Amino acid sequence: MKKITAERIKDAVKEACLSIQYRYSPKMEETLNSYMNKEESGLAKNILKILLENSDTASENRLPMCQDTGMIVVRMTIGQEVQIVDGSLRDAINQGVREAYDVGYLRKSIVDDPIFDRKNTKDNTPAIIYTDIVDGDEINIEVAAKGFGSENMSALKMCKPSEGLNGVRQFVLDTVKKAGPNACPPLIVGVGVGGTMDYAAVLAKKALFREIGEENPDERYAKLENELLSEINELGIGPQGLGGKTTALGVFIEHYPTHIASMPVVVNINCHMARHTKVVLK
Amino acid sequence: MIQITTPLNQSQINELQAGDLVFISGTVYTARDAAHKRMIDDLNTKGSLPFDINNQILYYVGPSPTPPGQNFGSAGPTTASRMDAYTPTLLDLGLKMIIAKGYRNDTVKQSLLKNQAVYLVAIGGAGAMLGKCVKSSEIVAYEELGPEAIYKLEVENFPAIVCWDTQGNDAYIQ
Prior knowledge:
Strand order of the largest sheet of chain A: 4-2-5-10
CATH topology of chain B: fumarase
Number of helices of chain A: 8
Largest sheet of chain B: 5 strands, mixed, barrel
Strand order of the largest sheet of chain B: 2-3-4-5-7
Order of helices and strands of chain B: EHEHEHEHEHEE
Number of strands of chain A: 10
Order of helices and strands of chain A: EHHHEEHEEHEHEHHEEE
Number of helices of chain B: 5
CATH architecture of chain B: Alpha-Beta Barrel
Largest sheet of chain A: 4 strands, mixed
Shape of chain A: globular
Helix content of chain A: 25-40%
Helix content of chain B: 10-25%
Strand content of chain A: 25-35%
Oligomer: heterodimer
């Protein structure tokens, strides 16, 4: 049985939390650059230029790109040949988050109770943690720092099966329209279709862990993603909602079998930060 | 390039057009959700605010902590609609300019018009760059709220876009 210590998991989570806050991913920079070159409106072009410069300013000064340094979402797969030793998994993850938010001068944005008191936990914990047991002897850790300007504009619809493809299409477009400037466009749009009500939301979040430009392996979904991206960018919302061709940079769809009576759809909105990364512990 | 320097001047405010990119230098106060709630509580219980809001600029922001060697943390705008319920009261007290991001409701827009005040939007996601525009900061009230405390900032060339001007033009496509 392969042994992996809780300490290694803590260090990996800490490093991951810090690695995503001070610079866009190279692929995101490339994508923003190419959209900037396609923009005709002076204001839209200028905003995208400022966003790219912001990434430089952030890394040069080690200031987070955005003051909303997010709630940490961890998606883990644990090989069934692995034993986690010398500590608890959940504590290790939260300790990694705590240390990163302290040394990184990141904003602590988590309150302890959603309704009563809403007292800040002052260390940005707890994280949202998803674990899955899989074959193998590795631990895969994906970490995202999810901002809530965009999270707040996400939405769920239990579509009727008869609404079909157009139902999904319309709901995605309506959600993006409603989000408008609030979610800080340009956006990344994560869509989860199928499963149950809750699982569609898990899928939509999973979709946001895809790297920009990464194609859906199912060609029907790849085509739908491309069509939706074009349709969203034809809405004219533009960078920061002030008009332009760049409303979204990517649409990612995850799907799962569902019940004969339903077609759950969740649209999880992300901003252009798209702060996420992946570590493998062997 | 339109430059705005505080103290604000009504005739300059009236010339601003929705869609204009402006650069602000001078004093700006910060407040977001919890500070707004506390300000309204103070008005109701004490009859006054912890600072004179007349002719001032309010920026909706919850900055990240200031690292050593920096003047301020990352400081981009937060979503304005959560403050809609409190805003008309503050505008009636003379608040002249609000900087945030996102839609405002009709009550806020009408109150801005009535008070000849303006709503500007800063670039969401440009927090590091906006934080670098802050040259100095001091906490004015509600220190226990941490990033939600009211700070008095001195800013230099802080970029923002006029969203709702004194003629009622809206820069957002709706």
